[in-house]
């Protein structure tokens, strides 16, 4: 799983999607842990279970592997998988959905695991590795270049032109550093998104301004 894409999915507000996609990351980590133990590549991830790999690591002598390999990483992916499999949408009516905090935990934990693998098994310049590790655990900002207006609009529940124009204006401000925007900017967004713009686009924008949406 590409962590940059996973982060971008989270910052688009698609928390459940990001959590679900973390399952692939867990499978990859299991394959790595199994390789560390046996030096065998297990391509069929269905043969790997977190419980089995964790127990196998715990049965090794204490000084065989670092504590992060023996305990912390297995427990971390177990937490990720539990959130993905058991939290889901099983919430009572009126409850505050935990998706945003769950997603932040999942993505941050994935970043930490990657950084720890890199720290333990790198064969590059130490300074370069430290820089990569720092970027993994510190850079939580959205990669603006990765987000298209098409993906942004798909992530929102938009059913009319007024909401669509507001979303486009927000996209221009947040991801393209366009402030203020004009009719030409919104027209271009409609074109890039391959959506037919309303015939009376000027009227739509004027009404939104009058209603203090901008």
Give an overview in words.
- The protein is an all-alpha fold and 214 residues long.
- The protein folds into two domains: 3-143, no CATH class; 148-210, no CATH class.
- Helix content is 66%, strand content 0%.
- It is built from ten helices and no strands.
- The protein has helices at 3-11, 15-38, 50-58, 67-87, 99-121, 126-138, 149-154, 161-176, 183-193, 201-210.
- Helix 1 (3-11) runs antiparallel to helix 2 (15-38), helix 3 (50-58) packs antiparallel against helix 4 and helix 4 (67-87) runs antiparallel to helix 5.
How are the secondary structure elements laid out?
Layout: H1 3-11, H2 15-38, H3 50-58, H4 67-87, H5 99-121, H6 126-138, H7 149-154, H8 161-176, H9 183-193, H10 201-210
Helix pairs in contact: 1-2, 1-5, 2-3, 2-4, 2-5, 3-4, 4-5, 5-6, 8-9
Gist of the model:
The chain is mainly alpha-helical. The chain is built from ten helices and no strands.
Main beta sheet strand tally, sense and closure: none
Shape: elongated
Broad structural category: mainly alpha
- Low-confidence runs of at least 5 consecutive residues: none
Kindly state the percentage of residues in helix: 55-70%
On the 0 to 100 scale, the average pLDDT is: 84
Beta-strand content: under 5%
Number of helices: 10
How many whole angstroms does the radius of gyration measure?
A: 22 Å
> How many strands in all?
0
Could you tell me how far the N terminus lies from the C terminus, measured between alpha carbons in angstroms?
A: 37 Å
Number of domains: 2
What is the element string, with H for helices and E for strands? HHHHHHHHHH
Oligomer: single chain
